[in-house]
Amino acid sequence: MRKFVLAVMAAGTISASAQKFEGLAPTPPMGWNSWNKFACDVNEALIRRTADAMVESGMKDAGYRYVVIDDCWHGTRDSLGFIRPDPERFPSGMKALADYIHSKGLKFGIYSDAGWKTCGGRPGSRGREYQDAMTYARWGVDYLKYDWCNTEGLNAEGAYLTMRDALHAAGRPIVFSLCEWGNNKPWDWGKNVGHLWRTTGDIWPCFDCVKDHGTWKSWGVMQIVDMQKGLRVHAGPDHWNDPDMMEVGNGMSADEDRAHFSMWCMLAAPLIAGNDLMNMSKETCGILTNREAIAVNQDRLGIQGFRYGEEDGVEIWFKPLADGDWAVCFLNRGTSVQSVNFPWKERAVTDSLSGRDAAFATVKYRIKNLWAGKDAGTTRKPLSVEVQPHDVALFRLSPVK
Ligand code: GLA
Known about the structure:
The chain is an alpha/beta fold. The protein has 12 helices and 22 strands.
């Protein structure tokens, strides 16, 4: 009886003190994930060389940190139930891989699933949450992406809370990335559970299409952008909407990649590259490392941008930034060039979420074109710009004091 009381008390202590690790993602996490390009074809050499490339390409200097192995790294569980990596793909083990990634000043991420099996059919964490969290902590994991396949009978919030508590009990600060595809509205309950949550099903490397896989669909960049409607109020420092990992460098045109990247910056989305970093073109690297675009994404206010409206055939998005600045993005979703004329002083741009008012009638802003890398005058005169099909014009406005 006494033993029973003690056990109950101990369990009570765990849940009372459990919480997510606070402060791990004050700005949207930046990194790389294996899935979009390599799917199940992962191994330790690929991950090491990707870490090398993250440093050598300048991505690390631009702010990218997490190197995340997605599905299919798993082998079998041992006789006590501890998960082991696939011995052929990861012969040196996960601790050695984590050490290597850490030696480069980078952080190590891994993937699991709340169900019996991952989406790729590998062992899931259901019923093994505390054991797996402890294993990840021992290996030196810094980031866990936790998927939602094969979860029959589970309640999403409950399942993610269990893993949150397990990670906390394991004691190592680990960014917790909820990959539940938006099915159970994670934006309503995710803030105290994880640091980011997927808002949609999987992305597909096309600008404007739906890919039908038969039993499920994946989504082009524009489809995903549209699915973010109404969600910005839920995001902020340490709790981000995640419109999925990027497809920059995975087959779209440079214009489309630029538009995709710009929109992820405007949406304060996690910037998780999904391309082959070892063999990327200069153009792809240039897009992923545009520091001024990244600064829009990483702005310390952490306010997700909003769609202001549509004029001259383009969508206009605004994002309030620190120190009175704004980002503005003209998105051409169509297939012909659009000539934009935007008379700042005649437009009222206010944001009830941040309480900000651009007050163009009274405040003059200096304009910087973030892809041309050039100053573009001030908001005293209407902006005149041509936007290519499937491309953007992205600007930063700074008040002239
Ligand atoms: C799901 C996720 C993807 C990826 C795969 C792996 O589809 O949404 O991002 O992790 O599983 O199997």
